[in-house]
Design goal:
Layout lengths: L2 H24 L1 H35 L7 H18 L4 H8 L2 H9 L1 H36 L1
Length: 148
């Protein structure tokens, strides 16, 4: 599968998970209200996640070479995972009531916009980091191709 397709699928899956979790926990009306209020954050986070997955898929493609280092893939995968978790942290406000953590939910709900911004910052950091690793791996593989 092409890296762009991985990114599109990741974007769609994140939006799907968002819709399912909010609908199951708080109902369809709540989903509509939250999306209407925060659509720009939700879409930006989903796009950021899709871009990270696409970059990561491309990085894996580039490093699939007999002499490639698995360290690049491992480090970028860990970073992508950390960014994904941070970008989805605000969804915990909708899941935590099920777990009975109402005090924490109130705190998270109070700072929901700030959590969106933190998620976006981590998403951007993940994109920059994986993009940098992809550029470095691409240069490395090009140099290796010139040597053989």
């Amino acid at each position: 599968m092409r890296p762009v397709l991985y990114g599109v699928v990741a974007f769609a899956l994140l939006l799907g998970v968002y819709a399912v979790v909010l609908t199951l926990v708080s109902g369809e009306q709540f989903l509509r209200a939250q999306f209407a209020q925060f659509w720009y954050f939700v879409l930006a986070l989903a796009v950021g996640f899709g871009v990270q997955v696409g970059l990561y898929a491309r990085l894996r493609q580039v490093t699939r070479h007999d002499n490639s280092s698995g360290k690049v893939v491992a480090v970028s995968g860990g970073t992508s995972t950390a960014a994904m978790i941070s970008c989805c942290a605000h969804y915990m406000a909708n899941v935590l009531p099920v777990l009975g953590a109402t005090g924490l939910v109130a705190l998270v709900a109070q700072y929901q916009t700030e959590l969106f911004w933190v998620g976006l910052a981590f998403s951007l950091a993940g994109i920059v980091y994986v993009g940098h690793k992809l550029a470095a791996a691409t240069r490395h593989m090009a140099q290796m191709g010139q040597r053989t």
